[in-house]
Amino acid sequence: MGQEGRARLCATLAAVCALVAPVQGFGADADDEAAELRTRFRAAYATADANLDVADDIALRGYVLYPYLRTARIEHALANSGRSWNAADDAALELVTEQGAAPVAADLRRVWLASLAQRELWQEFLDHYDPTAATEALECQYWNARIALETTADLEPAIATRWLTPYRLPPECEPAFQWLRAQGAMTNELIEQRVGLLLDNGETGFARTIARRLPPESASRLIERADFIDAPTATLDAWLASPDRNTDPVAVRDGFAQLARAAPDAALDRFAAVAARAGSEAEAAELSLGLALGLAWDRRSEALD
Fold it and tell me: Are 269 and 256 in contact (CB under 8 A)?
């Protein structure tokens, strides 16, 4: 099991142990038996990497946290699985079927599906995929499985929708996006929409990377917007010093709002000059709102003006 998975399970176990400890039984004998069982469980869990097939006794198998011990063993076995379906997969299927909608089953299913995808057992992945328990990475692996098995009907809209995400997605998504490009469905319009969402979310670095896939004119306009966000003072001053410079009003708005948040005094000093370049009342209103918010967050009385 990976370090992250072990940390997640340990945190869960600590919380559940705290809840179940007082109700294991009544009286001194029951308390002793419960304490002894908890000690045995901790010892078994600490060596969960040792063996998938351990003959645990009835008492341990009846312990409320026993499914987590089984999960730890299965996850370790999956991490050391060969390419083909094996005993670890059988054990994972048994546990997720037995536990149903329990959190331990959902956690194991995610780990198991990731293992199936890594081993390119695509049909088995599809057979056991559960969208309600899927992460973004597993959702993308679901598309990768369908692409590998050539069952791609109606797949383009789903992948295009996920593409329009305002942050960087896990690397498991890239094969599906490459397939979308190969179908001719990764249009410049779709790329521009993604870059716009990234910029709206302040993801300027990744937005620049995506923008470079566009024709130079479209890319330069979006990269200029990223410049206004990243370096608002210098970019706004350069823009103000070039009265004939044709700049996207959205870039100016973003840069001015960023300046107002970071340096309200500097934004206040430049507001009249920036607003004078606005092309409409609506643009001027957006600039005013950006300044007002920056001043308000700084608890400045000028925000009311």
Answer: no
